[in-house]
Amino acid sequence: MKERARISSRFNRALGPKPVKSSTRNNKLFGTDGVRGIANVEPVTAETALKLGRAAAHWFKQNAQHRHKIVIGKDTRLSGYMLENAMVAGITSMGVDVLLIGPIPTPGVAYITRSLRCDAGIMLTASHNPYEDNGIKFFRADGYKLDDKIELEIEDAVFSGKIDTIRPTAREIGKAFRVDDALGRYVEFVKASFPKGMTLDGMRIVVDTANGATYKSTPWILRELGADVITLHNQPDGTNINAGCGSTHPEVVSQAVVQHRADVGISHDGDGDRVMLADENGKIVDGDIILAITALDLLKNNTLNKKTLVATVMSNLALDHTLAKADGKVVRTDVGDRYVIEKMVQIDANLGGEQSGHVIFRDFTTTGDGIISALQILRIMKSDGKRLSNLAQCMTLYPQVLMNLKVKNKPALVDVPELMDEVRRTEKALGTSGRVLLRYSGTEAKIRLLIEGQDQGEIEQHARSITKKIQETIAK
Fold first, then answer.
1. Is the pLDDT of residue 11 over 80?
2. DSSP assigned state of 64
């Protein structure tokens, strides 16, 4: 933290005094996971990408005295070409070199950034969103995502115009290189997370790569480890990423597992940092169950740091009770894998994640990695000699209702009294046996509702009542 503060201070000195911000200024680029929106509509335009490239390059140049370089990877969206070229132009215009690694999962960018000793990594992706969207994620030199303070300083550099006059010339302008073996490097890195001497021989695995960034890597890794792999949706064309497939449609791989009599199904999102599984019967195994299985395994082997699992407020309450029975505990954070990772680093935890399938194994990597998460489950299946359905019985989930509702605006919830009155009535009715969580999406014009309790019918009724209030207030 002290080193980052020192770098930040030097960055601000290099830019000069900060202008006084107007209270009406509402320039905001970064959400909960980088910059995201409709491609070619602000802020995800070539113009803003170029400015972001310039601002980020200038920030990271303050880090050390050497020839600077930044990695850029992307998923399979058509708009990735536009943003990639704009970012290259912006970064090289500040005298920083660019290493282009092409379509690769987001965790691959984090790994290559560390492996090639780069100043930063950039991933162009909108994760599980449709192809019309795109986004920009940043990683520090150590492979972790940027914290809020750094993002605010980069935003300020974009909007303030402070770096407009910084123009390296002649030999000081940066260059761009293509790293042809980046995906192969990442594949070997992932395989190293699986025990030496253990194979997947005899296992049939269905993989849905969502026509995204894992379309080559995950089948490649599983086949090299000995699995019989059946691959779905691995023909990206720039417009079919996440289209009716992948981790947001786990029913697709569930059906295929039953059809092909497979041992397990794996579904990724568009950029490969999350995973959803299906057992041999086609039953979906989400992030919470993945966390429970792996946490209990680490507790059994006395390798769960601090006997603590980090999860978000969205994770099922059964997770707390399951770990407590095994002498472990759960620490909760706000929603977003970046907040999970920050808490993990803060308390030195080595396992954390989200219900959505972002799972972070810090013993191996610095961010969510869908295939590493899947491999840890496959390892436990092999070592324990159990099917996934047997392992998943370690936890009985509390009934939940999860809803994502489109909204036209995002007023502070405390300023919507009719809605909050309905939430309070629901909380009172559930008492200590349930909970209500209402929050806006950080990346989309949506509000997310979670209701958890002991009776499915009761919480569904409460969900209808709250949904009606949302539609009457902020959705109209």
1. no
2. -
Q: What percent of the chain has pLDDT over 70?
A: 93
List the catalytic residue out of 22, 23, 79, 127.
127
Q: Count how many residues are written for the chain.
A: 476
Asked if 69 and 98 count as a contact pair (C-beta separation under 8 A), the reply is yes
Q: At residue 378, what are phi and psi to the nearest 5 degrees?
A: -65, -35
What is the reported pTM?
Answer: 0.86
Answer yes or no: are the C-beta atoms of 51 and 78 closer than 8 Å.
no
- Known active-site residue 127: yes
Q: How far apart are CA 189 and CA 181, in angstroms?
A: 12
Give whole-number Cα distances, 402 to 202, 315, 352, 448, 467, in Å: 37, 11, 21, 7, 11
Helices (H), ranges, 16-137: 46-61, 80-92, 106-115
- Tens digit of pLDDT for each residue in 119-132? 999 999 999 999 99
Q: What is the mean pLDDT of residues 241-264?
A: 97
End-to-end CA distance of the chain: 44
Name the H helices within 301-369.
318-325, 337-347
| Separation between Cα atoms, residue 470 and residue 416, nearest integer Å | 9
DSSP 335: S
pLDDT of residue 9: 42
